[in-house]
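Input chain follows. Return structure tokens only.
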Amino acid sequence: MIDLDGQVALTTELFGDPEALFGTLGGRGPVHRVALPDGMPAWLVTGHREVREALSDPRLVRGAHAAAPELRQYLGMYSDEFVLTKHMMLSDPPDHTRMRKVVAKAFTPRRVELLRPRVQEITDGLLDAVLPAGRADLVEDLALPLPIAVICEMLGVPFGDRDEFGRYAEVITGMNASSGPGELAAAGQWFNTYLSELIASRRTEPGDDMISGMLEAQRHGDTLSDLEMRSNVFILLVGGFETSVNLIANGVLALLRHPEALERLRADEGLLPGAVEELMRFDSPVSTVTYRFAAEPLTIGGAEIRPGDHVAVSIAAANHDPARFTDPGRLDITRRTNGHLAFSHGIHFCLGAPLARLEGEIALREVLRRLPGLGLAEPAESLTWKQNFIVHRLDRLPVTFTPGPA
């Protein structure tokens, strides 16, 4: 049994570095009592087997109603004060099942695969813009604008609105770090108003986009309330780009820091699908899954969890568990990575996983093809990361390469 009073205070930087996290926790034990960087007490699950169990245990619920009263002050965007909380990521069955059914009908693998030519076209255009200069910031010039353009097109967000969408989305992803409660509330209100108008326009003028598809599903009996519709479109917009941004940028950085893997991949593009999986395992785009609350007593890895306790899981640590992955600190693009948890597990497994894989594969392939002589423009040690313990995103990735024509 873990001592409930033995909290280890954790900093944001630790969540993207599994070895440093294990060192601070005092070892690789599967469950630890911690204080998260925002001060919120939690059980942090780090073992691969225990993380899988926690992510699929119905006794750990997403609804904030199950949180102990003293935890409410830490909930931020997940509290009822944030207007767009009624989406599938913060729901439990049967509401989660009902909402995911509607969204999934508009987010099928077939629809995602049909996007391949468009993802290729956007990628080519973004690289065309930087090729003549011989230098770029691959976060701002590729990793960020590519998935934002794709998810906005999928949901029918007009091109002229995307910059404003991007600004408010950055506020949301700064939750518990760079964004304060007032900024989060303002961003939520902006999204609520904007999406109300966008959904209303699709009701009168449907198109070939996901919002129209969700509205069509509702006409066939799969219903969402107006607030649930706005909330689920919101989480698709914001969640629909974050994983891809980090997969692309973190993946390029990992390859630059392991030039033998980069050259092997450049020589054999057939290794790319497996390499994408290994890059997600090696440097997980989402480092931590938070806000699961015990609805009843349970035991995880020897820790006795009480009702109302907060359980967080470290995806990054689970993906570096030597009990599951041999020599986990080594990047091996030929590794069999079956079982990595970069897209979570259980009923909340990432619905956008096929899209993230598609965007990551195309972006990484074209970077290797079209940017000869690729290298970091400054030492890797000088690079900084977004101050967030949920996602692991580079602030920027300055590179140089041999200039060429668009």
